[in-house]
Amino acid sequence: MAEQHEQAEARKQGNGAERPDAPAQKKENPVEAPKKSNTRFFVMGGLAVAFIAGLLYWLHARHFEDTDDAQIDGYITAVSTRVQGTVVAVHFDDNQEVKQGDIMVELDPADLEVALAQSKAALAQAQAQLQAEQPSVGITQSSNTASLATGGDAVTNADADLEAARRELDQAEANNKFAQQQKARAVELLASKVIPQADYDQRVSAADAAAAAVATAKKRIDQRKATLQSAQSRLVETRANAPRQLVERQANLSVRQANLELAQAQYKQAQLNYSYGKLAAPVSGVLGKRSVNIGDRVQPGQQLFSLSQTGNQWVTANFRETQIEQMKIGQEVEIHVDSLDKDFTGKVQSFAAATGSRYSLLPPENATGNYVKVVQRIPVRISLDPNQAGLERLRPGMSAEPKVRVR
């Protein structure tokens, strides 16, 4: 009981010592409690806002695929000369805008004019040779026809002469037979002294003349046979050679015609070379990389300057292979160009046939065993929508940041 009483007293003394401090504690608690509550409120609110913002960004970003590995692309024409010559005038400078057909470079026309005159003279010569050769075909054809007709007539006449000679021989042989019979009778009659010697001599002379006539007729037949054979041989030769002569003339005419066509082609080439003496801009664009000056001797194929075509640019964007899963041709694209700080619109036009590493000078050889898997880049061509303000200021090589809407 005594101990309980002492503990009670001690508690009273302790309570009495804490009373003076109690009012101070009651003043601090109402201030600190709202501060802690406000801090927790702001922290929780900030976390909630960040979460909502992150959620909204994710919901928004999942509809797009973007990359900063992209640039404006375009056609760059390497303009070179087609003929050799000495430069006498240069009408442009670097970074100058030109229109299609504008004269850029002029070459000394003297050599080209000489070549043009030579080709023109060769053309006139070829035309004259063809005109001289053209009648020969008709002449040869007419001559062959006449020769064949003449040869046929000669054979016919020789055959007729041979037939006449044969008839003459028949007649001469008949006369000779009669004359020989008369001679035989005259011999008998002279022996009987029925006829005088003069009659006998006359009949003998007639018999000798008839025999000579037979011999002459035989010789004439041999001559007529030889003439007929000669005419027949000439006719056969004419028939064989006439087509060959005509073919030869036609071949010569074809050669002349080919020479004329060659001369015409050479003359046309000389005209083209003369026109190439003035080098014009093949397309509209901006010039650059000038490498020609007055007095330079240029050769065919030598590059004189580059021409960046304007009005036909596109964007080449190298997306990671993991980004093109939802990409399709025709999807809308928003392109931000850094140099202009301007946004343009476009559409996905096509996908490259291979990754960028495959188009590099030294493509990777994964079969060597030193293979490390790396996310590849796929070049995607993005066409720019026409009639947008600022398109004329775009230049190939400018950095761009395309954003493709995939959902």
Reading the helices and strands in chain order gives HHEEEEEEHHEEEEEEEEE
Q: What would you report as the Rg, rounded to the nearest angstrom?
A: 60 Å
The number of distinct helices, counting runs of at least 4 residues, comes to 4
Q: What's the rounded overall pLDDT mean?
A: 83
Taking the alpha carbons of the first and last residues, their distance comes to 86 Å
Give the DSSP E fraction (strand runs of 2 or more residues): 15-25%
What assembly state would you assign to the polypeptide chains in this entry?
single chain
Helix-strand category: alpha+beta
Largest sheet geometry: 6 strands, antiparallel, barrel
Proportion of helical residues: 40-55%
Low-confidence stretches: 1-8, 12-28
- Categorize the overall geometry: rod-shaped
For the largest sheet, list the strands in their spatial order: 2-11-14-13-12-15
Number of strands: 15
